[in-house]
Amino acid sequence: MLERVKKGRMESCTAIKQAHNGLYVVEPVPNKLLLVWCIFGEDGGWTLIQRNCRKNLRIWDTTWDCYKKGFGDLKNDHWLGNEHIHLLSTQQLHHARFRLRSAAGKQHLANYDSFSLEGENQCYRIRLGRYSGNAGDAMTSGEPSAGHDNMKFSTRDQDNDLSGAHCAQMGGGGWWYDNCRFANLNNGNGIYWQQLCRGDCQGSDILIQPVENCSGVPCAYCNAV
Ligand SMILES: [Ca+2]
């Protein structure tokens, strides 16, 4: 039986055909190597850009520069880094999955059918597509006063929100604050998702994956042919 081996650059976790979640090196642009945690499932490989299992509450209230470069432990609670997320999400069209573990320990999903982060010159503004899932849409439903889609990133030392106040100083952690929030998963004081948890979720993570350009065909299948 012929085994097809994909050669060349592994631009994302999706390009790595593995069964085991773990640390892998990807190359979103030529010669830019990036260590990431990959998650593999029935729908292909996903790159983890955030995990907050409330194992290390003190890492989240930090500076613009730390959110830019990334912090934490890739195997546990971490932020991959806005510059890395920008690189990954702008080479190919991506979609995103926000996973939340409720106070009762049940997993809920919020999927967005497109996802990208603009560059630092646009303050890592987030762009999201259509929502589907069972967590509730806390990222785009709060518009116009608490919507996160199309917002710039803010940290305790950079106020890029639309509030007269400084949301990141008040709410804690870095996020795409508006006026101020419907959601914030990067928070040591508690995970916040308007429809699901007001600080009492047990954990969260955010996964991204390239969207293959073959309409109607799921990504994993598309990659396998
Ligand atoms: Ca402000």
Report on the architecture of this protein.
The chain is mostly beta strands. It has one domain: Alpha-Beta Complex (Gamma Fibrinogen, Chain A, domain 1). The chain contains 4 helices and 13 strands. The strands form 2 sheets. Strands 1, 2, 3, 4, 5, 6, 7, 8, 9 and 13 form a 10-stranded antiparallel β-sheet that branches. The protein has a 3-stranded antiparallel β-sheet with strand order 10-11-12, with no helix packed on it. The radius of gyration is 17 Å and the shape is globular. Mean pLDDT is 90; it is low at 1-5 and 216-225. The structure holds calcium ion. Residues 159, 161, 163, 165-166 line the site of calcium ion.
Count of helical regions: 4
| CATH architecture descriptor text | Alpha-Beta Complex
Bound molecules: calcium ion
* Uncertain residue ranges: 1-5, 216-225
Briefly note the structural class of the backbone.
Answer: mainly beta
CATH topology, by name, is: Gamma Fibrinogen, Chain A, domain 1
Portion of residues within helices:
10-25%
The fraction of residues assigned to DSSP E strands is 25-35%
Domains counted in the coordinates: how many?
Answer: 1
How confident overall, as mean pLDDT?
90
The H-and-E topology, N to C, reads as EEEHEEHEEEEHEEEEH
The backbone outline, from C-alpha atoms, is globular
CATH class: Alpha Beta
* Sheet of most strands: 10 strands, antiparallel
**N-to-C terminal Cα separation, in Å?**
15 Å
What is the CA-based Rg, rounded?
A: 17 Å
- Got a strand count? 13
CATH homologous superfamily designation: Gamma Fibrinogen, chain A, domain 1
